[in-house]
Amino acid sequence: MPKALVTGITGQDGAYLAQLLLAKNYEVYGLMRRSASAEIIGERLRWLGILDHVHLIDGDLIDLSSTIRIMDQVKPDEVYNLGAQSFVAASWHQPLLTGTVTGLGTVNMLEAVRIVQPTARFYQASSSEMYGKIQEPVQTERTPFYPRSPYAAAKLYAHWMTVNYRESFGMHASSGILFNHESPLRGIEFVTRKVTDGVARIKLGLAKELTLGNLDATRDWGHARDYVRAMHLMLQQEVADDYVIATGRTTSIRDLCRIAFSHAGLEWQDHVRQHESMMRPAEVEVLLGDPSKAREKLGWVPLVQLEDLIAEMVEADIARHRGRQLLALPREIPAGTSAAA
Ligand code: NDP
Ligand code: GDR
After folding, report:
1. Is residue 210 within 6 Å of ligand 1 at its C-beta?
2. Which of 100, 116, 75 is nearest to 158 (CA)?
């Protein structure tokens, strides 16, 4: 039975990846931060019905002794490093924490692999945010990077350290440059989920308006379930490499609103408001990925269309607010209450 160690297992991708690996008969271990709210932290895994099927080990990415201890305890065949401070807007408020967790935390994992389990295959969760102020209209593995936030700068450091460990120590270390991917398990602070949650509240008469920031930005959105398949495929290759994972279609926040509100039979213009406080100090205006290399080398293609993804999210949020799944859900803050966008 192959063994996988997943950091960030309590997050959106970690939960879907754990589900995929269990279905493939892996023994799945997850690094989990200690929390005073441990019963809530595991909610995504519970939502997928797999909380009791994974082994959770306490530790923290910023603590090298944690990563070494866990590597020694598990001796995994594959390591998926998904843990991060992953919210771009928060990275301006907490730049040092973001650099420590998202940047140096990756090196703590790489060091633990190098010291304890150098034969393990390593996956790094790199990001399309590294392209930032885009240098080419369609981004590939060869497009130069131009990070626009403390988050993106931290991810870029982690990305190059992954490449460096591959080239310096011969480690099987791959980086997935993933474009935005969403699901009903997406954190409420990200724009897709904020919108689908807002649609649900408005539909059910719990709210009248939804306040957003920049409606002109465009993103290449896919489904998280499709994207974790790509992570696994990367580690099954004989030679480690870096891959762009994207759909090849970009959509504005405005059009996202149109799709989500119309799914519930609502007009988005009647409800969406823009507010300065939701704007970012520096914006990534457009992202559009070319996943040709992943298609050719991994045989990976995305299966879910944006409209179907948004429909699934709206339905899930309506169900949540109807209270059908109240006990099985992550704790949420109401959309629009955060000062940050
Ligand atoms: P989430 O924010 O949902 O999950 C982040 C995970 O990291 C959580 O499990 C969180 O734990 C954990 N974490 C945070 N800080 C620490 C720490 N100090 N030590 C250990 N674990 C920690 O992110 P996603 O699932 O959406 O993304 C997964 C990864 O992929 C992230 O690295 C993200 O930056 C990257 N990425 C995501 C994309 C997307 O569109 N979703 C696109 C490209 C890259 P806790 O539950 O305790 O907070
Ligand atoms: P992003 O995702 O920053 O691309 O990072 P997010 O959904 O937060 O923002 C996407 C775009 O929407 C605009 N926007 C708003 N965003 C939020 N969150 N809230 C709002 O009210 C709002 N209004 C407009 C933003 O300005 C932005 O242009 C995500 C994360 O998962 C990262 O970890 C990952 O690396 C990248 O995707 C790829």
Report:
1. no
2. 100
- How many domains does the chain fold into? 1
**What pLDDT does residue 38 have?**
76
Using the predicted structure, report yes or no on whether residue 55 has a pLDDT greater than 70: yes
Question: Which atom of ligand 1 sits closest to the CA of residue 61?
Answer: 19
Question: Do 153 and 99 contact (CB within 8 A), yes or no?
Answer: yes
Whether residue 30 lies inside any domain: the answer is yes
Owning domain of residue 119: 3-186+223-248+288-303
Nearest residue (CA) to ligand 2, atom 27 = 217
- Which of 106, 148, 219 to probe ligand 2 with, by most ligand atoms within 8 A of CB? 219
Residue 209 inside a domain? The answer is no
Closest Cα to atom 34, ligand 1: which residue?
A: 86
CATH of the domain at 65: 3.40.50.720
Query: Residue 341: its pLDDT value, please?
Result: 47
The dihedral sign for the CA sequence 232, 237, 243, 249: negative
